[in-house]
Amino acid sequence: MKVLTIAALIFFAGFVTAQQIGDYAPDKPPIVFPSNSWGADIMFGEGGFGLGTFYRLALSKNISGVIDFSISETKDEREIEYYDPYFGTTFTPYKVNRSFLMPVNFGAQYRLFDGVLTENLRPYIMAGAGPTFVVTTPYEEEFFSSFKYAKIHYAAGGYIGFGAYFGESTSNLVGINVRYFYTHLFGGGIENLVGDFRKDFGQFFISLNIGIMY
Question: Does the structure show a pLDDT above 90 at 18?
């Protein structure tokens, strides 16, 4: 019994001492991140590789407004690419046009778990919408020379997604996000495969975000 009493006294004394040390030790001041950030998106999606740029403005501690623009290829989900071992080239049967998406989106980000997670990990959900330009080039032409025959189509689109920023730097911005883009074309749609005109389609993208804060 005496041993338990002594042990309890030692634990209580240690707890009180720790509390006193905690009272004397100053808390780490909260990190204040700059309101503005600008950077680039490196995108990997179902249709291929893409590049983008973004501007982000903090409207409050947890809400930010975002404007972004990107260029990426979009493919019909039924496209099958074959490799020709004789010529060392790839080809897609029945393909008529290559298609490239160029959306301009206006959106918002909402930070999650503020006060629960450290500033080193800042997850968020996001959504955006805006006009989309779709450029098509004839598949029968060589990739770069085909752009002189390019046609532009007009569409509306948007995305929803989630992501996170990493690190406690107040000058460099590094993050990653996953977004689902949806596009609706006006007019007759785009012909990727013979006789098949696409007017509504969507695709997922994983984006690496690299930027600066100021």
Answer: no
